[in-house]
Amino acid sequence: MIFWHFFRVFLHLVAGLLTCAVLFPLVGAARREALVQRWSKRLMAICTVDVVFKDASQGLFAERTLIVSNHVSWLDIFVINTVHPCHFVAKADIRSWPVLGWLCEKAGTIFLARGKQREVRRIYEGLVHQIHDGKRIAFFPEGTTAAQGTVLPFHANLFEAAIEAKVPVQPFVLRYVDAQGKFHPAADFIGDMTFAESMSTILKAPRMTAEVIRLPAIATEGAHRRDIALQARELVMRELGLSQ
Predict the structure, then answer these.
(1) What CA–CA distance (Å, rounded) separates 125 from 31?
(2) I need a labelling partner for 3 at 20 to 30 A (CA). Which of 28, 30, 113, 191 fits?
(3) What tens digit of pLDDT does each residue of 49-76 get?
């Protein structure tokens, strides 16, 4: 059975490669987003991950915004893409992943090398331009994944892009739960775990539900990036039922 699941994932990755190589150059941005969304939904179905979207934004949602979220797994990008196809800022390590790294790049992922301040500045300036062009940008301000039940400090640097672009920050919460509503252990992608090990764990585990929760937008006019980062983290932790 596990071999069959891996084979289905492999076939789906091949389909994604063909879509990026053949269709993407021929269609516009809206159609590419629709293809990314459909491909992400299919990947989640193969991985037996049910995605549930919950709107807790109280109507405070803007189309032009900078999305931020807690970071649990490599699944996060594709889970969010099933709801809101985005151009993600992700750590450069993902680009080296076989096949999936290339697919992420073709889907518009922006790769950031950790610890390089000049690189952060270059990415930040690019984000401002992309937001002005109407693209939906998302990133994980923790900078790396954390086990469920934990939210690492939010790095503030890239929040400056929302201030410069004059758009709000929209926090999202990701939570992976089992049939009893408890954190699903198979979702955690931490430490020295490889992508292959994580995929194997997910495919062997009981079915999980990925909850995507949209929180109220945070206004950025006249604000400092550190204050916005702290406020975003506080909202995320409150939704997860965690104390500061």
Answers:
(1) 26
(2) 191
(3) 999 999 999 887 877 899 999 999 999 9
Q: Report residue 82 as tokens.
A: 């099933």
Q: 176 is written with which tokens? A: 């992976």
| Residue 108 DSSP one-character state | T
Tally of CB atoms within 10 A around 121 = 12
Phi then psi for residue 181, to 5 deg, are 80, 10
Alpha helical stretches, state H, the chain? 2-18, 29-46, 75-83, 100-106, 117-132, 160-165, 195-204, 225-240
Phi and psi of 124, rounded to 5°?
-60, -45
- Round to whole Å and give the CA distance between 49 and 207: 6
pLDDT in tens, 27-45: 888 898 999 999 999 999 9
